[in-house]
Amino acid sequence: MLCLGLSGGLDKVYENRFQVPNSFMHDGAAVLVRDGQVIAAVEEERLNRIKHSNKLPIGSVQYCLSAAGVQLSEIDHVAYYATEAYCNAMLENMLASEPDASIPLDAKLLVQQLLAQEFGTELDPSRISFVSHHQAHAVSAFAMSGFEQSLIFAIDGSGDFQSGLVAVGSGAEISQLATFPESNSLGLFYLEVIRYLGYGLFDEYKVMGLAPYGDPVPYRELFEQFYELSANGEYRVHLDRIGPTLLRTIQVRQKGMPFTQQHKDVSASLQEALERIVFHILWHHREATGMTRLCLAGGVAHNCSVNGKLLYSGLFEDIFVQPASHDAGCALGAALIVSGELGRPAPRARLQEVYWGPDLASDHAVEEELKAWAGHLEFERTEAVADRAAEWMAGGAVIGWVQGRSEFGPRALGNRSILADPRPATNKDRINAMVKKREGYRPFAPSVLEEDAREFFDLPGSACEFPFMNFVVRVRDSKRGLLGAITHVDGTARLQTVSRKASPAYWDVINAFKQRTGIPILLNTSFNNNAEPIVDSVADSIATFLTTELDGLVVGPFLVKKRAATLQDWTALAVSLPPYVSLHKVRAYTAQDRQETVCEIRTDHSSRDYARISHELFDMLTRIEGEAVLADLLDTITLDQAQRETLTGELRRLWEQRRVRMRPSQAARVHQN
After folding, report:
1. What CATH architecture is 145-321?
2. Comparing C-alpha atoms, which of 70, 667, 665, 34 is closest to residue 335?
3. 510-514 LR contacts (CB < 8 Å, sep 24+)
């Protein structure tokens, strides 16, 4: 029995027809389960390279079908991560403002048509289902927890006009106890506050990392005006009070401005308020139900600080947090719901790993990809890849590490990771500034051999398995000075324990580092820069390696370093425009306070996400039809050597921002072969 779960929007990658205001259509993904067991899953952002993609997960579906060796016609059931009534309401809302006669007002018919257009198969409507958004969150956690019984708390920003639920799971059944309306959304509560800290949607985790630098006391009473706690675990948030109050009280931070102590204290107060509300809800339902185990899902469940506080509180004997708690995880929940309804529920077993995405190509194919970059890369193959990588890191190198199948969810768990020595505090600063290109306060996570975790981390009770970076835990006092790169300002770390059985290649490289240094830990962060999702393919890995200051790259059995590429090497590359960018000429004020015609390259047809480019580069990019070799493009314009270098440099900066694509031309590939 094959069931396919979907999340995300309904547009193709180059479209913007279904941009429904205030809807939750983002984090597109596809998950394929056979008889309740996951066989393939990937987020669309990993494939179309649009962060938090709100597009139809076409590439994800294609991958899942390919991994199973089936056609869409062989899928028994397809499930979408929202109720049909909600989807129809969203369509009506959209078409009321922008009528489009080609779009049906029937969500099931629309999904049927979209799949038929892409895959040439018109599924019978009876094989397409819509499921409750928060029920999908709940099932994605409980079905993977291994618990026979537990309390379930699914909480996020919004979905199906709600923001969460509390339920009890028992066997294959989930019984709902309470739901929370959008007006009481804890996700929107958090989001509304961080707007005044210079952040927005999908930045919530950044504020979680900023909070330990602040003190909640100065704004505690202020934040108590924003929420009320009442009997029976009930609460209310006053979203309408937040903006007017903060505008009168604090200096609003604009994006890019430095953080003041005031901003840090507001972050701390926000985090404390969230924790108080969550504990208030769970204390009541723990007492009312007698449940000693807890499952968490929904975007708010990615708040690892809250999870850590729950862990140390002793309120529950065991806590399972769905590693893909955000909306992509609803694709998993949707697939499991319909699989259960068809008599194939998920086996009752604890989730151990989420390496469900695309695998690396064969060693031969990886080698050919590396050869095509001969002017930019040098590489060697080794059977001792873990030892050599550990040697690099012990010597101070920061490396990209790419092995096996990619992880499902927002965390790099050792297959698509940036790795480094966890000891020097300077590694944190260096990686933030020169590799990730992000705020300097942001912490990095440690990956520790499971059997050594308690020596370095103060873990509550008998817990020793934390494979998904879902909990902030305490670094032992005696180890904090040693682990300078991964110990946060408050003495904590977002921990990943690594099992030799679940992740043998990753365990091997950490163990090899231990043999050299005595430290069974590596700094682990996602392999990407600030402009892109986590890498998935070998090509993605090379692009990120060449556009960051990583010292080395390990892909499968290959050790890769950079060459000093010449201008000729750069101009031999082929250039193309991703389908999500567009070129524009507009009238705007320049730095000289004059209104002139300027050239912009925009992401996803958004006037807010753009980069200014020179007129020369604009004209050159408009000449591209599909893909063109840079040298050929430069030859279409009369340029001297200095101008060619300037334009090439400008283009490389756009590549770093992922606004253009650069890769070896087909001719270069043939030549290398």
Report:
1. 2-Layer Sandwich (3.30)
2. 34
3. 510/447, 510/448, 510/449, 511/386, 511/449, 512/386, 512/387, 512/389, 512/390, 513/390, 513/393, 513/394, 513/421, 514/449, 514/452
Distances (CA, A) of 246 to 240, 262, 318, 374: 11, 11, 38, 55
Cβ atoms of 527 and 544 closer than 8 Å: yes
Q: Is the pLDDT of residue 69 over 70?
A: yes
CA atoms within 13 Å, Cβ hemisphere of 353: 21
**Short-list 364, 355, 485, CA closest to 411:** 355
Architecture of domain 2-133: 2-Layer Sandwich (3.30)
**Cβ(440)–Cβ(472) below 8 Å:** no
Domains 145-321 and 567-671 share a fold: no
What residue has token string 């210079």?
198
Record the tokens describing residue 560, joined without a space. 């890769």
Question: What CATH number belongs to 567-671?
Answer: 3.90.930
Q: Please, are residues 469 and 410 in contact by the beta-carbon 8 Å criterion?
A: no
Average pLDDT over residues 96-113: 85
For the full predicted model, state whether its pTM sits above 0.90.
Answer: yes
Cα-based distances in Å from 639 to 101, 574, 575, 621, 650:
49, 19, 18, 15, 15
β-strand partners of 524: 419, 445
610-613 β-sheet, strand order: 581-589, 595-603, 610-613
Q: Which of 413, 412, 346, 407 is nearest to 5 (CA)?
A: 346
All structural domains of the chain with their residue ranges: 2-133, 145-321, 358-562, 567-671
- The pair of three-digit structure tokens given for residue 58, joined into one six-digit string: 């076409």
* Residue 24: predicted pLDDT: 62
CA distance linking residue 216 with residue 207, whole number of Å: 13
Strand 77-80 relative to strand 2-7, pairing: parallel
State the Cα–Cα distance between residues 443 and 488, nearest whole angstrom. Answer: 6
The reported pLDDT for the residue numbered 189 is 98
CATH topology of domain 358-562: DHBP synthase (3.90.870)
Q: Is pLDDT of 527 > 60?
A: yes
pLDDT at residue 673 tops 60? no
Nearest to 495 by CA among 305, 297, 294, 316: 305
Q: How far apart are the C-alpha atoms of 223 and 80, rounded to whole Å?
A: 37
| DSSP structure string for 255-270 | TTSPPPHHHHHHHHHH
What pLDDT score does 669 carry?
A: 57
Tell me the pLDDT band of 305, cut-offs 50, 70 and 90.
very high
Instruction: Spell out the residues 6+ positions from residue 153 whose beta carbon is closer than 8 angstroms to its own.
Output: 164, 165, 166, 278, 281, 282, 285, 294, 295, 296, 297, 298, 301
- Whether 185 and 226 have beta carbons less than 8 Å apart is answered as no
pLDDT band at residue 593, thresholds of 50, 70 and 90? confident
Residues 43 and 331 sit within 8 Å (Cβ to Cβ)? no
Per-residue pLDDT for 605 more than 70? Answer: no
Alpha helices in 2-83 (DSSP H): 44-48, 58-68
Question: CB atoms < 10 A from the CB of 671, how many?
Answer: 13
Run of H or E including 497: strand 492-498
Give the Cβ contact number of residue 54 at 10 Å: 23
Per-residue three-class SS string for 507-541? HHHHHHHHHHHCCCEEEEEECCCCCCCCCCCHHHH
- Residue 293 in tokens: 């185990």
Say if residues 298 and 164 touch (Cβ distance below 8 Å). yes
